[in-house]
Amino acid sequence: MLQTSWARRASAAVAVIGAMGAIAGPASAGTTFYASTWVDDDGVAQGYVESYPGTPHAGRLDVVRAGSVVATSTGHEWGTWVETLVQPGDELVYTDLDSGQAQQVTVTGRPAFDASVCGTPGSVSGTRDPDGAVDLGAYLYFGPYGSRNDYLEGAVTTLSGEQFAGSYPKVLAPEWRVHVTQTRKLPGDVVFTTSTSRKVGACAPPAAAPAVVPVPAPAPKPPVDTGRPAGKLDVPKAVFAPAAAFRALSAGVFTTTVTVDEPGTVTQTLYLDN
Asked: N or C: which end of the chain has fewer CB within 10 A?
């Protein structure tokens, strides 16, 4: 981990910072809060918070989560430091031990880099608090005397609502660390500076394309019978006798046998010829 002040503020990873101030009293006018997180080379998330009073009084810095103090430290007039990994929703409360008054800010989880910052980016993007000023940087660190140590200052190109974007003088590589610092000026002369940083890292492999399920070929249509149907009519000879034929014509009822070579509708008609 870097030992210089800029590197300590820059060495960070998963974004968990950002805040909204709420004033509980005048306390130390102009209290400055600072919070930072990072993920080390072993993939472990770490962080710390600091407070600097606006008056030369000793004070206490508490990290409050869901109503309970999860980390605390008492410092001198030059500042208070607590090693802890804050989370969105945490409250940082600085209490002036001389006056008993306090000021606080609430962590919002910003700024944060987008997941698309990976591989060999020349630019970055992410989210911020709408009233936060943003600074960007990137660095390589191989120890206090590493010949390959390098630092780049990024240029902010977009600040729009909750979004930020920026670029670097050259394309980065996966081993670079990118960091973003956000500064907010809140009521009561409170300043809340938050920093988050992470390694660029390799991009996740693209999702596999869904398997193509072959569409079965339609069943072949049955052959069309284009031949002329054949049939045979068997009429009892008695039907043709004059008396029987007259009765059949009068009643409209007669009996015959029809034989056909395929399904169909057979219509029989009896009529008088000549």
From this structure: C
Q: Return the bridge partners of 231, or none.
A: 260
Percent with pLDDT over 90 in the chain: 51
Per the CB < 8 A criterion, the answer to whether 197 and 11 are in contact is yes
Q: Per residue in 187-204, pLDDT tens?
A: 999 999 999 999 999 998
In contact, 169 and 135? CB cutoff 8 Å: no
Is residue 72 within 8 Å of 60, Cβ to Cβ?
yes
d(CA 11, CA 20): 23
In the block, tokens 């120890």 appear at: 143
Element (H, E) at 244: helix 242-251
**DSSP assignment of 97-163, as one string?**
TTT--EEEEEE---SEE-TT--SS-SEEEEE--TT-EEEEEEEE-SSTT-TT-EEEE-EEEEEETTE
Q: How far apart are CA 150 and CA 8, in angstroms?
A: 15
pLDDT of 168 > 80? The answer is yes
**Phi and psi of 76, rounded to 5°?**
-100, -175
What is the Cα gyration radius of the chain?
44
Residue 26 pLDDT > 50: no
For residue 67, give every residue at least 6 positions away whose Cβ sits within 8 Å of its Cβ, in sequence order, or none. none
Beta bridge partners of 180: 136, 196
Token digits of residue 179 = 């960091």
- Decide: 143 and 94 in contact? Cβ < 8 Å: no
Per-residue pLDDT averaged across 222-247, rounded? 74
Read off the pTM: 0.67
